Amino acid sequence: MRRIKFYSKAFIVPSYKTLLQPLKLLLHRAPELLSRSNKPLAMDLEELLNILVYFHLQEHSSGRAMLQELKQDDIAKKMIAPKGGLCRSTFFETLNERGVEQLMFVFQELQKRAASVLPNQYPELGNLVAVDGSLIEAVLSMHWAEYRSSAKKAKLHLGFDINHGIPKKLSLTDGNGGERPFVSHIVEPGETSVLDRGYQDHHLFDQWREDGRHFVCRIKASTKKTVLEAFADQEETGFYDAKVLLGTPGVNQSKAPVRLVGYNVDGKQFWVATDRFDLSAAQVAMIYKLRWDIEKFFGWWKRHLKVYHLIVRSEHGLMMQILGGLITYLLLAIYCREQHGEPVSISRVRELRCQIRNEAILAMGRQNRKRPPKKNKQLRNAIKPTRF
After folding, report:
1. What are phi and psi of 137, to 5 degrees?
2. 207 contact partners, CB below 8 Å, separation of at least 6
3. Residue 299: per-residue pLDDT
4. Rg (CA), the chain
5. More confident of the two residues 137 and 306
6. pLDDT tens for residues 202-229?
């Protein structure tokens, strides 16, 4: 087992150390970050994570702005920058060429830690994973991010653990990447995927059931329905609830029957298909309503951690940036729960930013008092008594 020096710098800020403490248990097990030449690494995995978390926590809008701060701001220089400093070329080379394997390991392990710390809000509904895609604006020089001839976009495919309110799994494609195939990659057997209408696919419904993956998916109102058994009277319960086959026979009809729940909200009709016959119609409707949690996460994450402000243009680099943002969110989720007993909020994040800076200023003051002032050599010679 290789030895890891965790935050060995003399300059330590208690709140920031507490935030990053969950990483301490992971770094010695993470794949080693290696140089691809005889030249030694300018920063190790610990320092790379420190920089990426600081970037997202402080809402930097560009990599250059952060690098300038690491050089010119005394607090950032002592608390964040590697001991030998950090030049622009080294930082961007690292993001574009290495580190995805290491950050993916850290993300997956942190996700498990967060799930063990945060309360399970809906144990009676089983393990719920909302799956959705989010487009990321790209620049025309990002040739891999295909979308339209006049625009480039990438797409993040994310699984969101609804029970604990944290991201779970991810994949990155160009903007035209299909969303449906990623459900099997993101959702484990025994879990229930919660999906919007864009994921409706009757053949995939059959495949997911064969693989042991459950689903709750809104479908189009115009979908053809062949009723096999009605479970409830809609006039009495407020819900349409029946066992049906979806689709047109001989064209796209599902092989296995599914449960179809229909209901109205403020005059808007919803049709939700599922293989969960063990739940009530009200619980199925509630599960689909919880899909909104992933939309709220995307909005908060993008707005307050600036994760979509591009600092690199390669697919590898963008994956590094996204993983850094997800790791930061998980650290904040663990911190807010353990220190305050509540979920992540922007007010707590702002409070943490202020606390880190205040503690850093105090620590710098203490260090300066411990060091005796350096006397100017010429001044010492000038005041040296003359002997005759």
Report:
1. -60, 130
2. 184
3. 93
4. 26
5. 137
6. 999 999 999 999 999 999 999 999 999 9
Residues, the chain, total?
388
Does position 383 have pLDDT exceeding 60, yes or no?
no
CA distance 103 to 79: 21
Q: Mind listing the pLDDT tens digit for each residue in 48-98?
A: 999 999 999 988 878 888 889 888 988 888 888 887 788 888 888 888 888
Tokens standing for 304? Answer: 């307050």
Strand 128-137 relative to strand 192-195, pairing: parallel
Angle between helices 45-57 and 14-27 (to 10 degrees): 140
86 Cβ partners below 8 Å, 6+ apart?
A: 42, 43, 51, 67, 70, 71
Place of tokens 């600081």: 54
The pLDDT, as a whole number, for residue 232 is: 79
Q: How far is CA 95 from CA 78, 110, 234, in A?
A: 22, 20, 56
Q: Cα separation of 269 and 321, whole Å?
A: 39
